[in-house]
Design a protein that fits this description.
Keywords: Coiled coil. The protein is mostly helical and about 500 residues long. The protein is built from 21 helices and 5 strands. A hairpin with a 5-residue loop joins β4 (about 455-465) and β5 (about 470-480). The longest helix has about 40 residues, at about 175-220.
């Protein structure tokens, strides 16, 4: 590296010290702040304002007990972190309250610290296989020699035919569980990095939107020139690495063949037995992988699609003209103030009056005190004749109204013991009929919300009612894993 390159690198890094990610890592309370941010948004991308402040209050109490010096209230820290560029606050259309989410710099900083805290293996087989596969694909797709290309395709065909013959003869090769877990974790790592790229693209588009509106209001030039410059900026964002990754994923998402293959592969993976050896957070992330990616990509695509129409509506709106008029008035007032500053001292009285708003003040004696005795509930009790119902009748009524959760838990434990992998509610009902009809189905769903892993799909469940008629319904699809057997036995 030349001296000039070293100097340029130093200047670039020195300028980046003022960026939000660097400031977050350099602050004195970085461990406590990053811990709170990571825990708050570990399983959810956005949080409503009420839930965010409540959970942040609890996390602050925990890190304070650990020795962190964070004396402010949760609301104060949320305002500070928004100003620092670590949190983003938005009010989406249709929402009932503000929503909080991490910014791209905060995601980068927390992800970097998590990699330091939990380093992965320096050279896993899946990463090496990805490098080899990419290198082979690069060599094949950049080869313009028909003979070598044909030889490579024939070799691939022979290898594929050999695999087909092996499967037909019953020789099915399966990955060992430890290697399957390694590849699943590599999928999660790369998908998280891809989601971070989507965040950067969305924030870049939002920054351009704000820049355009500012220039449209403050710039005296033609509107066409300003629009052309900003749309050039959008094209630049599309050519970045994050922009290309988003465009490639969006093309795959709208391609029915590629999208179907992706969903089919994910559906097969989440039913494999090796997932039981992964922790609950990893299984949940893998189960919701497509929905997370689709949700984030849809947000970016919505911003991208509505960008031009929103700008055109803003330029034609009355709000645009009012803001331009306000900017012109502020500029003229500033010019007049600068000119008057030469002749009028700051302490000199002028013939001008400023009417300010005020608040109404009332005496405490004007308040009416609440009288608790004015609304006393009648506490008298009415005597009721004793019932002649038998214990057997009462037990039957309880059986009708209450669900036998103990029997359902025993059924789940038995079904998990017989199964090789995860099971669903429909699988349990096939082995153990619903003795309480719909009540048993409701009971299984209740247990699934506490002990099973949810998915984005639904399944068909069947049961026989007390009248002997078979019924069916669509229910949420949950997967019970063997590791929840101890919880069900408690």
């Amino acid at each position: 590296m030349s001296t000039q390159d070293t100097f340029a690198l130093y200047e670039d890094l020195r300028a980046r010290k003022e960026e939000p990610a660097w400031r977050l890592l350099a602050t004195q309370q970085s461990p406590a702040i990053c811990t709170c941010l990571h825990v708050l948004f570990l399983s959810e991308r956005t949080l409503p304002s009420s839930a965010f402040h409540e959970r942040l209050h609890r996390q602050l109490e925990i890190v304070r007990r650990a020795g962190a010096d964070l004396p402010k209230l949760a609301a104060d820290y949320s305002s500070d972190w928004i100003a620092e560029g670590w949190l983003r606050r938005d009010f989406p259309h249709g929402a009932t309250e503000e929503m909080f989410e991490l910014t791209a710099p905060a995601v980068d900083a927390t992800r970097y610290l998590m990699r330091l805290s939990r380093p992965r293996a320096t050279a896993t087989e899946s990463r090496l296989a990805s490098v080899v596969q990419l290198l082979q694909t690069l060599a094949e797709e950049t080869d313009n020699n028909p003979e070598t290309r044909l030889a490579g395709l024939l070799a691939d065909r022979d290898a594929l035919n050999a695999q087909i013959q092996a499967v037909r003869s019953g020789k099915v090769t399966q990955l060992p569980p430890e290697r399957a877990i390694e590849r699943a974790r590599e999928v999660l790592t790369q998908s998280n990095e891809l989601l971070e790229d989507f965040v950067r693209v969305q924030e870049s588009l939002a920054a351009i939107n704000l820049q355009l509106r500012r220039e449209l209001v403050e710039n005296d030039g033609a509107r066409a020139d300003t629009l052309e410059r900003i749309f050039d900026g959008i094209d630049v964002i599309k050519q970045t690495e994050a922009g290309r990754a988003f465009d490639a994923f969006w093309r795959m998402l709208v391609d029915p063949v590629a999208s179907t293959r992706f969903e089919a592969a994910l559906t097969q993976v989440i039913t494999r037995s090796f997932l039981g050896s992964m922790d609950a957070t990893e299984r949940r992330s893998l189960t919701k992988l497509k929905s997370r990616m689709v949700e984030r990509a849809a947000d970016v695509h919505t911003v991208q699609a509505t960008f031009a129409s929103g700008l055109q509506s803003f330029v034609r709106s009355r709000e645009f003209r009012e803001q331009r008029r306000l900017v012109a008035l502020l500029r003229s007032a500033t010019v007049a103030a600068m000119a008057a500053a030469e002749d009028i001292r700051p302490t000199q009285k002028v013939d001008a009056f400023l009417f300010r708003t005020s608040a109404a003040i009332r005496s405490v004696s004007q308040w009416m005190l609440h009288d608790p005795t004015a609304h006393v509930v009648d506490a008298t009790m009415t005597e009721i004749e004793s019932s002649d119902a038998r214990l057997e009748d009462i037990e039957e009524l309880v059986q009708r109204s209450e669900i036998d959760m103990r029997s359902l838990k025993r059924n789940l434990v038995a079904a998990l013991g017989l199964a090789d992998g995860p099971i669903s509610i429909a699988h349990v009902l096939e082995r153990f009929p619903a003795e309480q009809g719909l009540g048993s189905v409701v009971g299984y769903i209740h247990l699934a919300t506490r002990h099973a892993e949810p998915t984005e799909r639904r399944e068909r469940v069947r049961w026989e009612g007390g009248d002997g008629i078979w019924r069916s319904a669509d229910a949420p699809l949950f997967y019970f894993y063997k590791e929840c057997i101890d919880e069900l036995r408690e």
